[in-house]
Amino acid sequence: MKKKIFISIFSLVISLIVILSTSVTIIFYVNYEKREIINLQNDSSLIIEGINEDGLNYLTSLEDYNNRITLINDDGNVIFDNMIDASTLENHLYREEVQEALTNNYGESKRYSSSLLKRYFYVAYKLNDGNILRLSSEIFSVFYFILHDLWPIYIITIVSIITAIILARFLSKRIVDPLNNIDLDDPLSNNQYPEIEPMLIRINNQHRQILSDKEKVEKAYKIRQEFTSNVSHELKTPLHIISGYAEIIGNGIASEEDTKLFAKKILNESNRMTSLVADIMKISELENQQIKNFEDVNLKNLILQIVDDLSLSFKNNGIKLELKLNDIDIKANKDHLYSAIYNIVDNAIKYNKPNGKIIINLIINKDNRPQLSIKDTGIGISKEDQERIFERFYRVDKSRSKANGGTGLGLSIVKHTLNNMNATIQVKSQLNKGSTFIIIF
Ligand code: ADP
């Protein structure tokens, strides 16, 4: 890139310098030709005046005149020449300028002189006596002028070329250095060119994306590891209990009554294991595939069905139920939605106080969205725990959860399910006063 910029700047300056110096030379040279003809014409007028006054003797007085003066008679014979012996010169009648002067009184030409073997400008005038006065001056080549008159321009040109090289090197370095010095770890910190800002913003975003992707992968890996160790831990406990009681029964040392009790405990633990495995399978299913088969679901009817299915549980726990349900239809997967709401209502019963109350409200909220709230008057959840209850296996009171047959996976499944159906869930709770779970569809 540096080389490219250098070449661009250098070629630009060099082209300008070459165009400029060549133009000056051409203009100078073209003007020189015009000037030279005018000079010869002016000199001719003065010499003609001199001849008119002093006759041909006037010509001999012009020995020091630096241009060539030739006098030719109307036969073409050379009468006088201040540079060459006239008697040695051939007949000049057919010289271009002489021919022109004979017919038009004035002639001019620019040609090679066979007498002096150089290129000359010629002007010729027909005098009153019929003779032709011809003045000529040597045409110098353009190189002659470059060496004699235009050399300062060419020295300036060479100096300019050297300056251009130095300047082009300096400028290309100055342009490229900030680009070379961009800190790609923090691209926005050293942007000197607004033109590349969009590119730097993109690099910065990609950078952040990579970092956040890395964090996400690490987090996912950590969650998976925690999950695996939690699962094995959760399975190990009931298995220990089951094998312990089975061993006692197997040894035949337990009384009949104890055997019945142990068998009941074994059944409880295996039921817990079954629901744990069912929950684990549900979680992995939710993680691996999107919920499909959306249909029109009447939320009011769904809730009525859930509370009906839980009516025994309400009755056993002495929980009163208050329903304020609007008739609202949404698009959802009915089975998944049933499980999620069932879980929340079930928790509201499980974590309620004796003779507590549950209020279920279904409305269209101020943002015009269906909103379901399930409020209980139970044990409540502390602020710190509110942030964690949606995590897998998180239980505020492990023994109470276990006693209720909980796995600690319920709310995690609920959150996953609702998010999968474009709904959100949040909790508001006060310890010992109760909790409200709010779902917005
Ligand atoms: P669990 O199977 O233990 O009920 P969940 O995931 O359903 O697991 O709930 C996680 C934890 O959140 C519960 O163990 C409990 O401590 C707390 N929790 C859930 N619902 C309520 C509620 N309505 N009132 C008080 N605590 C609750």
Secondary-structure map:
Blueprint: H1 2-54, H2 57-60, E1 68-72, E2 78-81, H3 96-104, E3 106-112, E4 119-126, E5 132-138, H4 142-148, H5 151-180, H6 197-251, H7 256-288, E6 295-298, H8 299-309, H9 311-317, E7 320-325, E8 329-332, H10 334-350, E9 357-364, E10 370-376, H11 383-386, H12 398-403, H13 410-420, E11 424-430, E12 434-440
Parallel strand pairs: 7-9
Antiparallel strand pairs: 1-2, 1-5, 3-4, 4-5, 6-8, 9-10, 10-12, 11-12
Helix pairs in contact: 1-5, 6-7, 7-13, 8-10, 10-13
Adenosine-5'-diphosphate binds at residues 343, 347-348, 351, 376, 378-379, 381, 389, 394-397, 401, 406-412, 435.
Structure, described:
Helices cover 56% and strands 17% of the residues. β4 (119-126) and β5 (132-138) form a beta hairpin. α8 (299-309) crosses α10 (334-350) and α10 packs antiparallel against α13 (410-420). The chain contains 13 helices and twelve strands. It is rod-shaped and about 165 Å long. The protein has helices at residues 2-54, 57-60, 96-104, 142-148, 151-180, 197-251, 256-288, 299-309, 311-317, 334-350, 383-386, 398-403, 410-420; strands at residues 68-72, 78-81, 106-112, 119-126, 132-138, 295-298, 320-325, 329-332, 357-364, 370-376, 424-430, 434-440. The protein has a five-stranded antiparallel β-sheet. It is of the alpha+beta class. Adenosine-5'-diphosphate is lined by residues 343, 347-348, 351, 376, 378-379, 381, 389, 394-397, 401, 406-412, 435.
